[in-house]
Input
Amino acid sequence: MNFTDFDLHDAVMEGVEAIGYEKPTVVQELAIPYIMAQKDVIACAQTGTGKTAAYVLPLLHNLLTHPGGGKSIRALIIAPTRELAVQIDQQLEGFAYFAGLSSIAIYGGGTGADFETEKRAVKEGADVIVATPGRLLSHLSLGYVKFDKLSCLILDEADRMLDMGFLPDIQRIISFLPEERQTLMFSATMPEEIRRLARKVMQAPEEISLAVSKPAENVLQAAYMVHDSQKTKLLKSLIQNKKELASILIFSATKSSVKDLENELKRMKMDVRAIHSDLDQSVRKEVLNDFKNRHVRILVATDIVSRGIDVDNISLVLNYNVPQDAEDYVHRVGRTARAEKTGVAITFINQKEVRNFQKIEKLIGSEVRKLPLPEELGEAPAYEASHRSSAGGRGKPGGGKSFHKKPGGSNPNHNRKPRPPKAQD
Output
């Protein structure tokens, strides 16, 4: 089907066409009709499936077809991180470019002037507010936030918010909202705690559940067994002089290791920036924008961006360390091969991390191919898996064809067409 089949408001369709969307993803195809019908929806879909547009487009349609009286806050979107809040607000601006609807992102980490700007916008009334829980509560505690005209609440990355300890904050925020409202919940996973929350805050929700906890099929996954002392040299051999890898995202375990890795790559004369929690929000935003706009080839990051970055055509995602949480592997890998494009994901495994990587392989239901180290790096540690899957011999070291691929294939949601300012796909 095409987006024209949804019968979205003309002003919303103008935004869709200007950005270049034509064919909806699966989660968009399933969720948009329910949301347009103003039903509560709980959707389980992993990152990279187009879930933001799945709720933004019908939300804008509903706001336009059911206009409210005067300036007021009519929809609230809650997100776990500043990066995700900014990303959602950018998509809202793009899709609502022809609709005359207003939105504002509210998140911590800014200056006192930023807080005052948010306060003014909230008091004057924005159609849609995108907020992180803590920052929104700071405004709510001052008594000027009015939600009496609110018709829709959206919880994005609900599982991430619960992991970050935001459940009490979410419950407190909901206590300020009208009971009669539409509630939408989007989550990459659906633990029981999420279902309990849904039962408390939603009315007979329609449930959408796509395959989760598995990387997209068009992600070429590989791993290396490696001693820590070999990692930097291996990384250099994988990315240096590889022009086909135009955009590289590297995840490392801690902010100190991210800083060290950034410095090491700079010494190698590589085009690299880092993002971590020690940076001011303005700097983090600048770094992300430079990476999105291809002004920087390599971004080194902690998990702060694993679910909050929306960048097309990332050629390679590299896990410098094995994620502690198997679910985080899926989200990291989900940064590449977005919206049906291809990509490469590589993980470095030391002997202490073998057990964690086995948990990842169990979660995704297959072994990840282990590639041999280049001979000049010396001998690799052994990968002694205690639970082999039935995936043939793919987990054994093997050579053969190069695993570097240019992202290819067509993505119907991202054609080269003129687009409104600030829209981010």
